[in-house]
């Protein structure tokens, strides 16, 4: 975070001591949380069968919940940050803070990043969302996955899940993708988004099991598991 504040020069060096970590980013409507949870279970099952320590975990909403606690936010704000669908991520934060405490956007983002970095440093973790691919890109033992799908397919999923029209679902998907992109831009520092990912999977054309199997193969090839 000191690099973001200009206190140190940016570095591209690889950190050899951290991880392993697998990050999953997704376009809105792709099953990132579902795949993340299933992936960590498959990894632990595999390690158990091989008589190895099975201590992998996965993180998604916990990132926001723990960051909110550190920032002394209300439970209402914690929930809002966990499923920011109606508004931008930071559009109306002040409404949820006590009158005498407002940490500011930079501190909120950096607190989230610190939680992700610390979790990845402990290792054996699957992290879904929150720009984790950018925050942990320099970890030697890391794999970064992006889940994508055509807009119409994602809109159909969202229309059914949220009980809204197809047109509303398309607009919601585009708006959420935009908000997530703006959040990632803070950490990506102008580097093209695609440079942070090792592999991208089309959720319309592939099943969850197929995607997970390929991630496992990649993890084995790299010695992550």
Q: Can you walk through the features of this model?
A:
This protein has helices at residues 32-49, 61-70, 75-82, 105-122, 132-135, 151-162, 166-188, 208-221, and strands at residues 21-26, 57-59, 125-128, 142-148, 199-202. With 225 residues, it is an alpha/beta fold. The model is unreliable at 1-12, 82-89 and 95-100 (pLDDT under 50). It has a 5-stranded parallel β-sheet with strand order 2-3-1-4-5, sandwiched between helices.
Structural class: alpha/beta
Number of helices: 8
Cα distance, first to last residue? 29 Å
The strand order across the widest sheet is 2-3-1-4-5
Shape: globular
Low-confidence stretches: 1-12, 82-89, 95-100
Please give the structural blueprint.
Elements: E1 21-26, H1 32-49, E2 57-59, H2 61-70, H3 75-82, H4 105-122, E3 125-128, H5 132-135, E4 142-148, H6 151-162, H7 166-188, E5 199-202, H8 208-221
Task: For this entry, give a set of tags.
globular; 225 residues; alpha/beta; 5 strands; 8 helices; 5-stranded parallel sheet; disordered N terminus
Short summary:
The chain is α/β, with parallel strands linked by helices and 225 residues long.
């Amino acid at each position: 975070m000191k690099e973001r504040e200009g206190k140190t020069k940016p570095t591209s060096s690889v950190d050899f001591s951290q991880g392993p970590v697998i990050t999953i980013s997704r376009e809105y409507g792709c099953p990132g949380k579902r795949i993340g949870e299933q992936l960590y279970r498959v990894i632990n099952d595999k390690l158990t069968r091989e008589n190895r320590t099975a201590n992998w975990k996965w993180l998604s909403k916990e990132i926001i919940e723990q960051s909110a606690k550190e920032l002394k936010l209300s439970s209402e704000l914690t929930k809002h940050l966990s499923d920011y669908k109606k508004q931008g991520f930071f559009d109306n934060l002040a409404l949820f803070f006590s009158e005498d405490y407002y940490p500011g956007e930079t501190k909120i983002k950096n607190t989230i990043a610190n939680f992700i970095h610390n979790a990845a440093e402990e290792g054996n973790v699957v992290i879904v969302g929150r720009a984790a691919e950018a925050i942990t890109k320099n970890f030697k033992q890391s794999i970064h996955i992006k889940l994508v799908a055509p807009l119409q397919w994602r809109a159909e999923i969202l229309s059914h899940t949220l009980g809204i029209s197809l047109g509303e679902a398309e607009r919601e998907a585009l708006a959420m993708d935009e908000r997530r992109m703006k959040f990632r831009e803070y950490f990506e520092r102008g580097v093209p988004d695609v440079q942070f990912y090792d592999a991208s999977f089309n959720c319309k054309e592939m099943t969850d099991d197929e995607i997970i199997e390929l991630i496992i193969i990649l993890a084995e090839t790299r010695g992550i598991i």
